[in-house]
Design brief:
The protein is α+β, with helices and mostly antiparallel strands. The protein is built from two helices and three strands. A three-stranded antiparallel sheet has the order 1-2-3, with no helix packed on it.
């Protein structure tokens, strides 16, 4: 907990990849707060383009 209204959640997958997510407590609910960097593609690309880019990198279910 960063404060009564903010928290960081660390997630580890198989002990290899560790990610951190931010949440804010608003209106009686915890809400995910994506970073500006993680939202960049959503502001500049279509979902189809994002999926194609991820497939080209070997992700997103080929």
């Amino acid at each position: 907990m960063d404060s009564a209204h903010a928290a960081h959640v660390r997630v580890s997958r198989m002990g290899i990849a560790v990610m951190s997510y931010q949440f804010a407590y608003e209106g009686g609910h915890w809400r995910f707060r994506p970073t500006t960097e993680s939202m960049k593609d959503y502001r500049t690309k279509t979902i189809q383009r994002m999926a194609a880019d991820r497939r080209a990198r070997g992700g997103c279910g080929k």
